[in-house]
């Protein structure tokens, strides 16, 4: 159990560090409110569940061992972050304003689906998450352990990440009254776009 609690402590620190998913959470909290931000978190949770399953099955290790496959994943992740950032950075001003249910009630389900998809794709193409499952997690699994132990650590990672993003969603949604002021919202969205592009460029240049 000491290994497990050490793993929990390490992952807690890792998931609290703001990354691309937190930027998406902030964008959705400002433009669509808490529900949109939470859907991003659910998308990230689903992707983490996929990585946990592939790690338990040994597929993740194969991807890391194959340089072409790992590079393809890294560049796909970088391209997606740059794409999301560019959409915010160069979007028309009216597209950056917070939407209200009264203005577009039919768009709410579509917006929720988009938020889930963005969270999922952001995490599933993140090679650093893959490395967490294939490089960090095995250090906390004793030799000769049963298959349920890697699964337990993978689920723990996913749940802690989801809790962290949920807390970010709540905090940013509560600050929505200030963040949704039109001029501030536009500046925040433009800045978020630049940050996402920076994340993508750093990921592409990472060695």
Which descriptors apply to this entry?
0% strand, 207 residues, globular, mainly alpha
Q: Overview of this structure, please?
A:
The chain has 207 residues and is mostly helical. Helices cover 79% and strands 0% of the residues. α2 packs across α8 and α3 packs antiparallel against α8. The longest helix is centred in the C-terminal third of the chain and has 27 residues. The protein is globular.
Would you spell out the secondary-structure blueprint of this structure?
Elements: H1 2-16, H2 20-31, H3 34-57, H4 59-65, H5 67-89, H6 107-124, H7 127-136, H8 148-174, H9 176-179, H10 182-205
Helix pairs in contact: 1-8, 2-3, 2-6, 2-8, 2-10, 3-6, 3-7, 3-8, 5-10
Q: Helical amount among residues, as a percent range?
A: over 70%
Shape type: globular
The assigned structural class equals: mainly alpha
Number of strands: 0
Q: Sketch the topology as an H/E string, one letter per element.
A: HHHHHHHHHH
Q: Helix count, per DSSP?
A: 10
Alpha carbon gyration radius: 18 Å
Uncertain spans: 101-108
- The share of residues in extended strands comes to under 5%
- Distance from N terminus to C terminus (CA atoms, Å) equals 35 Å
The largest sheet is: none
Would you kindly provide a brief summary of this structure?
With 207 residues, the protein is mainly α. The chain has ten helices and no strands. The longest helix has 27 residues, at 148-174.
